[in-house]
Protein 1
Amino acid sequence: MFDVLALGVLVLGGLLVIGLVGGLLKLLLKLVLLPFLLLGFLLKLVLGLMLLPVLIVAGIIGVVAVAVAGLFAVLLPLLPLALVGVAVYAAVKWLARPAAASTGS
C-alpha cells in the first residue's frame, strides 16, 4: 500500500518539476519574443487608428440606412390613406362653388 502512495508522490513531484521547467522556458521565450510582441501590438494599433475613420463613416451610413428603412416601414402603409385624403381634397376643391364676386357699393 505504501508503494502506491510513494509512486503517487513521485509522479506528483515529477509533474511539479516538469511544470516549473515549462514555466521557466515559457518566461524565457516571452522575454526573447517581447520586442516582436510589442512591434505586433504597435502595428495593430496603427492599423486600428487608420481604419477608425472608415469604420465611423460605415457606421454612420448604416445608421442612416436603418433610419430610412424604419421610416419607410412606418410611412409606406399610410400611403393609401394619404392618397384617399388627397383625392377627397381634390374632389371637394373641384366641386366647390366659386365664391360670388362682390359688386361693390
Protein 2
Amino acid sequence: MNYPVLTDVRSGELTNGWNTMPVHKYEIGQEVRFQPARLQVGSLQDAYVVIRLLPEEQGSLQYQIQHTALGLQRVVRESEILPICAP
C-alpha cells in the first residue's frame, strides 16, 4: 500500500505520517554564496553552484558546491551557504 508523501508546513520536512526526512533548501544548479561559520584560511567567499545534494551529517544537510570561476569544489553544511538572488 502506497501512502502519499506530505510536506510539514512548519518544518519543511517530508513526512509520511510516521517518519520525517529533512528537505534540502537548494537545488542542483542553483547559485549560492559560501559564508563559512568562522573564517577559514583560504576559503573563497564567492559565488558557487550546487553540484550535488548530500545526506545529513551531524544534524545538518550538506552540499557539494563548485566555485563558478575557478572550478574549485568543496563540501559545505546548509548553514554555510546563502542563495544568490537573481536581479
Protein 3
Amino acid sequence: MTFQPTGPTKGPAVTTDVTNGSYRFTSENGPVAGSHEVQFLLDVPKAPAFAPLPKTTDKVPQLIVRSLAPTNNPSPTIQVEVPSTGTLQLDLVVPNSKP
C-alpha cells in the first residue's frame, strides 16, 4: 500500500507491503504527519505470455504480477490523517474494490 500526501501535506509518498494483514513503518521510513490518500496495490494473477507448463510441473509457483490499476478493477483508495503525536498505529480497512 502507498501513502500519498494530499492537500497541504508535503513529503514523499511511501510504500510498504501488507503481510498477514499487517504493515509496518518506522518514524524514519513512514509517512509524514498530515492528510494522505492510501492506495492499496492488489496482487493480480496474470497469465504468462508463454505456453502453459506441462502437468508434471504443477508444483511451480503461480506467476503473480503486481498491477497498480487493473483495467476492470481500479486499486481501492481511502483518505487518512496521520497524527503528528501519539500512536503511530493506524488500523485501515481495505474498501471493496468491486463495482
Protein 4
Amino acid sequence: MESMAVSENPESEHDHVVRDAFAIVQGCAYQFVYENWRGDVRTYEVHVTRLLYGTNQWHPDPCWLLEGTSRGEYRTFDLRKIQTSSLRKIR
C-alpha cells in the first residue's frame, strides 16, 4: 500500500474542500424543508449565493451557513437544520 502525504497546513486543505463544495452549489437553486430558530418548519426554494462557516445575528454559534434568496428576500440557513431527505436541486 502506498503512503499518502499529510498536509503540513491543514487550513489550505480545508479551504480547498470548501471551495469545491461552494462551486457545486453556487448559482444553483434548491428546495428543502427547514426548521427555523422558532421551531417553525416550512419548505423553501433558495437560489444559493454563498456557503460559509461562521456566525450572524440569527446563528450566534459557529456553524456552516447557506446564504441565498428565497421569496425575494436574502436569507441564511444553518445547514444542520435542513432536512437532508427533502433536499433537491431545482435549477
